[in-house]
Structure formats: structure tokens, C-alpha cells
């Protein structure tokens, strides 16, 4: 059995034995430029997700605008976008207040943004460790993972795939279909 297949099987077994929410989503994270923490399972129960590793000073940072548009388009269809700010590629602002300003003011982000956390390597947070094991680890900022509400289906899209690319929106639509 390949490592990725074994990791996917582990994710499925974990989800089946611990209810509808898989362990890799049953995590607490602090919101960007806030003292408030959220548990992904509690906050996004029953929702399909688009999970993205972000950075405020990256060439792909303008994707925030399209991510927000995708969020607005699908948010009433049991769907949410979660941005994981990260400085793994040395492009996140050192000050969370500035990173928050870039997201919320400059790009009008209303979807959930989380405080900077590691998304690659041994220090990656549990959510990104599982996403990488099931698909690919982020090779840069703005990698996108479409995740079914039960965590059993995960599709990966690299940095160059824009949030409104038909390949990505088809993956979202496929999860929303009855």
C-alpha cells in the first residue's frame, strides 16, 4: 500500500470511528489578529470546505479577492473558506495587525482567516499534515484543498490554480451535488 493510500485510509477510519468530523479538522486555531479561537469541527459542521494556506506579501496574494468571490458564491450551500496564514515561505507580515489589514481591508475578506501557523514539514499543523498526507504538501503559498463535509474527499489545487478556475469550482460543485 502506498504511503498516500495508507494516509487516506487512516483519515477515513479516523472519521468513521470519531463521528462525522475527522480528527484532522477537530482542531482549535486562533483567528487572525484576535484572541478568539475556534474549533474547525464546531464552526464548520456539515460544510464542505476550501482550505488555503495564505501569505499577505506573496505574488498570489491578489487571489484573496477571488477566494472571497468563491466564498460569497457558495456560502449559502453548506460551504466555507478557511485561510491559514503562514510564514513558511517567508512572505507573511511579521505583524498580525498588518496581515489582517491586507486581508480584511485591502481585499475585503469576510471568510475565516486563522493566525499564522506552520503548514509544511514536521512543524505543520495537524490539519495541513493530514491534507499533505492525503494529497500534496504546499510547495508555496495559496495551495487550495477542497474538503468534503465528512473529510473523506480531498482535492488539491496548486498556487497557480485561481480560486475561480473551472477545475476548482467543479470540485466544489461535485461536493454540493445530491
Can you describe this structure?
This is Glutathione peroxidase. Keywords: Oxidoreductase, Peroxidase, Signal. The protein is an alpha/beta fold and about 180 residues long. It has a single domain (about 5-175), classed as 3-Layer(aba) Sandwich (Glutaredoxin). It is about 35% helix and about 15% strand. The protein is built from six helices and seven strands; from the N terminus they run αββαβαβαβαββα. The chain has helices spanning about 5-15, 40-45, 65-75, 95-105, 125-135, 165-175; strands at about 30, 35-40, 50-55, 80-85, 110-115, 145, 155. It has a five-stranded mixed beta sheet with strand order 5-4-3-6-7, with helices on one face. The protein is globular, with a radius of gyration of 15 Å. About 40% of the residues are buried. Residues about 1-20 have low confidence and may be disordered.
What is the CATH superfamily classification? Answer: Glutaredoxin
Radius of gyration: 15 Å
Structural class: alpha/beta
Helix segment tally: 6
Shape field: globular
Q: Distance between the terminal alpha carbons, to the nearest Å? A: 31 Å
Number of discrete domains? 1
Order of the strands making up the biggest sheet: 5-4-3-6-7
Percent range of helical residues: 25-40%
- What percent strand? 15-25%
The CATH class designation is: Alpha Beta
Tell me what the CATH architecture is: 3-Layer(aba) Sandwich
Low-confidence stretches: 1-18
**Oligomer designation:** single chain
Secondary-structure element series: HEEHEHEHEHEEH
For the largest beta-sheet, the strand count, sense and barrel status come to: 5 strands, mixed
